[in-house]
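Let us practice reading a record.
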Amino acid sequence: MTHAFSANVFSGLTGVVIAFQLALVAGAPWGALTQGGRVTGQLPLTARALALFSTALLALFIYLVRTRAHSVSPVRFRRAIWVVVLYCALGIIANAATSSPAERILWLPVVTMMFLASLHVARRPERAALTEAV
């Protein structure tokens, strides 16, 4: 499996999460599927603000993963990718521990795949970057 493929998997899955978060911001009644499932129906404004922040953070993560996978990345990207991996690892823990069965069933597989894809990209040797860039 190439690093570019892993970046595409990460981007696709993260794009789904971003679309979900934007739907929550717009008022979709899916509160039970996020933030621990504490809210049924539409999220309150503060929770929608958190979903909007999450959207921006996830878009940044796509940029970091794609940059690391597709180019000889500057040192800051080689280090920043590990923030993405850690975020996804924490997401696995949070989704495994949630009291919402629906949230666990839906998001645990997604965040696990995001973790594996980002880890694969993060572990990419710089030599591979030179080979794949050519």
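A brief commentary: Residues 45-70 form the longest helix (26 residues).
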